[in-house]
Design goal:
Layout (H helix, E strand, L loop, with lengths): L20 H5 L15 E7 L5 E7 L1 H4 L4 E5 L30 E2 L5 E7 L2 H10 L1 E6 L12 E4 L16 H7 L2 E9 L12 E6 L2 E5 L5 H12 L6 E4 L16 H12 L3 E3 L6 H4 L6 E9 L5 E13 L9 H4 L8 E10 L12 H19 L3 H7 L17 H12 L12 E2 L2 E13 L1 E2 L2 E8 L4 E4 L9 H13 L6 E4 L16 H24 L5 H9 L5 H7 L6 H8 L3 E8 L8 H6 L6 E2 L9 E13 L5 E11 L6 H20 L5 E2 L4 E2 L17 E7 L22 H13 L16
Parallel strand pairs: 1-12, 10-11, 14-15, 20-21, 25-28
Antiparallel strand pairs: 1-5, 2-4, 2-6, 3-5, 7-15, 8-13, 9-10, 9-12, 13-14, 16-17, 17-24, 18-23, 19-20, 19-22, 24-25, 26-27
Helix pairs in contact: 5-6, 9-19, 12-13, 13-15, 13-16, 18-19
Length: 763
Amino acid sequence: MNAAAPEPKANMGQPVPRYDAVAKVAGRATYGSDMPLDNPAYAFLVTSAIARGRINGFDLDDAKRVRGVIDIITHENAPDLKESKLFSNGGYAGTTIQPLKSADIAHDGEIVAVVIAESYEAAREAANRVKVSYTAATPSASFDSPGTTKAAAKGQNAQFKEDPQVGDFAKAFDEAEVKVDAAYETPTQHHNPMELFSTSCVWMGDDLVIYEPSQYVYGLKNGVAEQLGIDADKVRVVNPYVGGGFGSRGSMTPRTAIIAGIAKRLNRPIKLVPTRDQGFTIATYRAETRHAIKLGANRDGKLVALRHEGVEVSSRADPYCVGGTKTTTRLYACPNVDSLVSIVRADRNTPGFMRSPPEVPYMFALESAMDELAVKLDMDPIELRRVNDTTNEPIGGKPYTSRSLMGCFDEAAKAFGWSQRSAAPKSMSDGDWLIGYGCAATCYPTQMAPSAARVRLQRDGRTRVEIAGHEIGTGAYTVIAQTAAERLGVPLEQVAVFIGDSDLPPGPVAGGSNSTASTCSAVMMVCDQIRQRMFKAMMPRQSLTDKAKETVGIGRTPTMQAAKSDRTLDLERAFDALGVGVIEEYGEWKPEGAPPDSFKAMHSGHARLVGGAAMKDKIAYAFGAEFVEVRVNRFTHEIRAPRLVGAFAAGRIMNPRTARSQLMGGLIWGMSSALLEATEIDQRTARYVNDNLADYLVPVSADVPGVEVILLSEQDDHINPAGAKGLGELANVGTNAAICNAIYHATGQRIRKLPVRLENIEV
């Protein structure tokens, strides 16, 4: 892999090193479980050994004999908590299944007891001695299990509002000259972030402080307050660094309020650090999906009919779904489109957001089917996509704010050497290795959320930026600091950024690739407020009309124009004109299309993302093209992916260095989702089998010897002040399809179920 940072291009920020690099390398970055507590007690979870049934009783005598045990909490003596709605249905919670509420068991690994002790070791020892008697019922594990229920997602899940349709699909498909009718499957996958799902709770009188890795401190703050029945102003969530989230920390977990309630009862700080295997069931995951794709095309490759039916697994309690048809039905020009998303309810813990939640499974199906269509047409896969490229999405006819899909294909194909590809399957080899080339499109909706910021500028140039954003490993500190430095004209090293604290001005959930666009837009706005005050002080003569415009905040005055321009600000002169040594501004920014009550929702942790296909008069997506080389050993059937190349266009790239790292990680994860990752489920017991990092396969450096990221410069003035589309979740979309398309090219075998393992290969 080439480790050099890319040179900045037009409409790209500087590739400066990470703001937090030294702190992380030196071990000074403080994560949730690192926070020092005064005389803490330690919690250890006991989780269910069955997936469905009831608890008959507990035998706690042996556990209580362990020296240092303080208390053991079960449903019989647990804190009384109020109900909370599912995040995707307008609440805060990642699941409505509330542990320790009753003797009923809803899924494998549900929390059934919490042991509190003077040390972690004592709590763990006692937890292993807790004996639980169950009456087990036969659980439903997945799609084909007896007892599951299936229903359309629309009407069950508030966030899934449409099954996109246009034209007459049935008639067009029936009359199509070339057809593809295929089924695809993706497996259950788990996040496995490096930082475990820890929680520490400290009460200071009636005020609660929570130290927990979270992707949404305002949502967690308000959600826990709701469960505890206290004022949200009494709760503070602190997490300056998060050791990976990938969506698993975007909503409130069931453990937090339990630990807070126990800490209140004992009047003592409580620290919980669950084990790796417990993370498979006390947090969310990517659910398995099934897809039926029908494509109809003319002989020239133009699509005339497209239907995408998706089915997803969720828990018995919650109608969670991702519903990626809102993307797959809009990607290509097609006059006749139909779709349907359904949910199958099983005895499992509730799934949740996992990096590119809808697009990873749904685009796998579409981009695999597009490759199958290209083969039937005897057409180059890139040319097929070019023929069906569009400036307007087909469902509502909205124009894309910008669309560089084919530009990405052209750049990536050139860098990859696609022109050297021999089109016939099994026609390329190197000794015992069959070689295959594959490609796929990637896309991700541009999403934004209301955000607030406070900026304080001193005469000497020192700047303090406060916003309750989140550093989940993406470089949030860095791009926020760069934004302030650029707008105020101060050196980057003089900017101090404070994020990850619910006492700061509210920021959005760090998910949906919205953080940079949202937080940087808010910071830009507040910096421009500072600039306007300074230019106003240096340009004191204003007309009555200009003064009136500034008073009501409408129109453009000379000071407003100067503030929003690239005009350099003379700090010394400005502060002299103001007659002060410090200037501070606060502001609240909301994107186009956000509801009128956005700011109220922002403070209450209810603000939701807007953008993508939900924009009123246009549609905004980031795009890319991904190419892979696979090698399949004709004797052992071993599969290798020695080269991954991706070209991406995502509006303004705030920092090419951090962006490149995000995109490289996404490409690697996309390869992993194709060849390695799958959570195995015992269909008899509905229990996860490989709930550890020894058996749950993830890639190592030897699996990805060559990864190349190409950043396209793209100007988009329609999306937000920062001009950023978001790219954190862009690169791991489509890679799984590109891998399978390359395997077909290498072997002539079309594989439609992930992950692809050597036992699936028939050469």
